[in-house]
Structures
1.
Amino acid sequence: MNKRGKATRGLIKEKACLMFAEKGFKEVTMKDICEITGLSRGGLYCHYSSTSEIFKEITEDMMSCQDEEFQSKMDLGLPAVDILDDVLRRYKNEMIDSGHSLSMAIYEYYSIKENTIGENALYEQYLLSYASWKRLIQYGIDRGEFNQIDIPAVFDLIIFSYQGVRMYSKLMPVDQEVPGRMLKEIRKLFVRQEG
């Protein structure tokens, strides 16, 4: 695919992501995406055949981005605590920003039977995220920055806290201090205290 094609696909995903966050997955149509991107139907269908295809690629990109972020920082030898603090800060901001949350759209997308044919695609995303976090946690343990923790349990605490707040914030007001309190306690599980 040429640069122009990649740029167009990027624009489609960027604009569609905003619509999915606002309206959920089920309410967004290809016509909506044509309107928000300024593409003709033929132009859009040149790149994607359905909203499902667009949404799937958006979620795959998000997972890949986190994995690459963790790995590139570890490859540079950055302190594990700095990497953790960066991601927890981003998670806090995302948890507070319910307007850009894809949690409801993710729920809707994966609740449609044809989107879960074969292996459970959401579970595959969960396992990919777990693998990224496991590498980061082990990196921090090996460097003596993190406590010896139950990696699967702490990962579940992170992921389900994060997604839970994002989901509930779409349905009801959530005090903006909630994410900070939660992530502060999660951080305490990780970081070794001197003395």
2.
Amino acid sequence: MSRQVVIFCDFDGTAAEQEVIVSLFKAFGQPGWEAVRDAVISETLSVREGVGRLFAQIPSHRVPEMVAYARRNATLRSGFREFIEYCRVQGHRFLLTSGGIDFYIYPLMEELLPRDQIYCNESDCSGPTVRILWPHGCDEHCLADCGMCKPSIMRRFPSEQYRRVVVGDGITDLPAARLADMVVARDLLSVKCRQAGIPYEPFETFYDVMTVLDRVEAEVCG
């Protein structure tokens, strides 16, 4: 029996054209946020610590403004909507796996994906500043302090039963790429894959991703 394809797709910079979380910090973050971001990218600061620290500086009462800003400025990457339907037709399981935050991802994914297909960090705005919650933390096999641990989610889908495909663009996708049967990458993730010797297929639109999957499926079946 052939393995079911499971797509683990990033959000910021992947499903969305923009790094939405970065655009929010540019608009609402406190001075010095860039240094924290750069420390996360260089892997000198964990994602969980960096993201938690940055949002802890933002007053909770500004979250509705941030949601409105994300709705105005974020655009989905070309072909993404069609890719969701493509996965349904092909019988591929699609999961949005993001280190972003629920308060902007859920509104942007309305009518496209049910929430049980979205894995992201959650937020608590009941206090004076935004507190990030981590419902999808690292399992016993990961010590990277990911916050939203993509490899831990992938391990729920063993490679003996599933063909695991990672689609992403950034540093948070690299640990997942190391576990994947196939990687479709752009931007920083493609650079990191080359440096680590991880094979990958490049993409710019989700039409490219569909083309890659069709080609690989034909090769496997042929």
3.
Amino acid sequence: MKLGFEETQTAYTSGSQNARVWTETWVKTWAYCPHCGHPQISQFPNNKPLADFYCSSCQEEFELKSQKTRFGSTVADGAYKTKCERLAESNNPNLLLMNYDRKSLEVINLFIVPKHFFVREIIEARKPLSPTARRAGWIGSNILLGRIPESGKIHIVQNRSIRPKDLVLEEWQKTLFLRQESLETKGWLLDVMNCVESIGRPEFSLDEVYAFDRHLSKLYPGNQNVRPKIRQQLQYLRDRGLLEFVGRGNYRLIK
């Protein structure tokens, strides 16, 4: 894998269109499938809704978003209705996020959000387009990247450094159990994982997670048993090998 783009001749005069060609060509040439390790992923024909690439070996699908700056807490995406409909489907795409250097024409960061981290709560509807717009009334979506735990952001390239492939595949497999869960169950698991990560230490207490009960109550206003729900999620994460119970109400994150 090399980080530089091949600045091939394009038919576009727009810088953003040229950048799209360069980034897509880079992914097609150098990216591998993080699910099965296949050394290359293929590009779909243009205009396929939501997905840009697929793995010919395991059939995983991928959507690519690229920009010059680092991604913030939200990522603009396609049609809201289509995005929500795809959430529970097996071919819901994984999300590849790339930021690049426009001057040196090279990848700075590339990370993937596995599709099993996508739940309804992280998809936000944008305002409908105005009546005078070409697609009047169309409603796009935002992906709330800030609600995805760090374990759901698997770096392939980080700060211009290529991470070992076996480590990427290991991190992918570690959270694959989430695919077995319903969207509702995943929502709670991911939000509790976010709370645990925000504590900022590998060891933490149950009381420290309880401190997020008001935050979680706002996210799930219909649930009147937030603390039992927190305990349930911690036990589940322990059973799945992401946490270790070290006694007296204390837990440890397993790297």
